[in-house]
Amino acid sequence: MLYPKLWLRIRPRYYHALIVARMNKFPSVARIMAPSIYDRLLPSNHHKIHRLFSSTPRNQSDDTADSSSAKDVKLLIQSTSQLVSGIRRNFDIVTGQVDWASMVKELKQLENEVKSETIWEDDPQRAIAAQKKISSLEDQLKVYDGYKTRVEEAVSMHEMAKEENDSELFAEVATDLEALNRDLDKYSMQIMMSGPSDKNSCFMEIRAGAGGTEACDWVGIIARMYEKWGTSEGYKVSILDQMRGEAGFKTITIQFAGDYAYGWCKYETGVHRFVRISKFGEVKRQTAFASIQVFPLDTENAEANAQSFADLDIHPNDLKFEAMRSQGAGGQHVNKTESAVRITHIPSGIVVQCQIERSQHQNKATAMQMLRARLQQRHNMAQAQLKSDAYTSLPENAWGSQIRSYVIQPYQMIKDLRTGYERSDVDNVFDGDLQGMLEASVLHFNKRE
Questions:
Q1: CA angle 346, 349, 353 (to 5 degrees)
Q2: What pLDDT is recorded for position 21?
Q3: Which of 93, 133, 95, 96 is nearest to 114 (CA)?
Q4: Do residues 218 and 290 lie in contact, with contact meaning Cβ atoms separated by under 8 Å?
């Protein structure tokens, strides 16, 4: 039996020794040679080739077992080959979306630039900006190189499993291939998020529209849906403000803290329509609406956001501060002091409110972050016409303006009217399974752009 050619590619001078070791004539050779092979593979894959160097000889019963599982191995080969094709396709997309060679060249130029002593003396601000850019480029290249290594390793392990015809190894490889394919899908989406604020955290404002009590209840349902999505994706989710209605909420503001929160959520801006049999007395189908607006938030520079507004021409005299008691369950402190804060920007009429923190000072700082984000977006809209598909300026919060419909009765269907994406498993969606819908939006709008 010839040993797989994979080993010839990894370490040619050991090829003959590995053949001998694989035939188990000299088990000690396997123990000596195995580490040299391990060194060329990722640590997570070491255990997968360990049995290839086993000192136990193969016998006739092993060959019989292999023959009986030939059909299973063939199915595994087909399924894993499809996964490998998908992984290669996704990685080609990632490679083609960014000019990685130019990025490496820019990194080297910036590194040479900051090494100069004159730049720190003549223009320290430029030097600091260059240092930040270097850090950003290094992070991007590190992630890309990591995926490149994982793809190469996965393809090699898949080839090894095919050569060995080993169903156990195939099962382990298939698990890793599926995980890598999911990670690459997500990474390719993040590569598309090239906007200046796409990598930021964000906060989402949800307001009840037409529909009365049903609309307030709808705000509570959709807020819970986004909370569960954010938690499942690893974001830190916080309720910054809420105003209760007869059922549910009239308004609610949610913060998602983490990388690319704004990139994922920004296309959720718009009017969302909800249809079901009302549970509030009238036994007939009711339609309710809720509007959503999403704003980027730089939580890493909270102090700067709260105190520095020179670039937006904000003057202290233009701000009106109000303190009040927080709503909700509270506790021994939060409902007994005026810890909640409302800030009104008088020239624009923008009002923000925060009551999540225990102290008035913390709530004020968070409210200032929210105000700055809203004013910054208003400023950006004044500088350039945003595309109408982004729905940054919302239409009427009622019939005819919806971007997505959630129908519960008489049938179950959730449909995005912009992308055409549909789901019939409404319970899963309301439990936070939104990733497919968000990915469809990212693909749709980036294709148009």
A1: 95
A2: 44
A3: 133
A4: yes
- Which of these, 218, 191, 205, 193, lies nearest to 404 by C-alpha position? 218
Sign of CA dihedral 227, 273, 192, 385: negative
Rounded distance, CA 319 to CA 310, Å?
14
Cα separation of the two ends of the chain: 55
pTM (2 d.p.):
0.66
Judge contact between 287 and 274, C-beta under 8 A.
Answer: yes
- In this predicted structure, which of 101-110, 203-212, 285-294, 363-372 has the lowest mean pLDDT? 363-372
> Of 116-130, 148-162, 295-309, where does mean pLDDT reach its minimum?
295-309
Work out the number of other CB atoms within 10 angstroms of the CB of residue 228. Answer: 16
Q: What is the pLDDT of residue 449?
A: 54
Q: Is 354 in contact with 341 (CB distance < 8 Å)?
A: yes
Q: Are 4 and 160 in contact (CB under 8 A)?
A: yes
Calpha distance 340→331 (Å, rounded):
14
